[in-house]
């Protein structure tokens, strides 16, 4: 019988992809290559997707979120 090797199809992890490229300016979590980063006008750095969700929710609770 053939052995299903699908679980290995992704190959070895790319060391560069695993290295953090930034720190979230809000929660200081490391942000990795390939993860989305968000910026707002008051920040020097970027923040992570989780903090963006929180920011968006806070903005929605203030009313219409328009640029
Ligand atoms: Zn964050």
UniProtKB/TrEMBL annotation:
Name of the molecule in the record: Uncharacterized protein
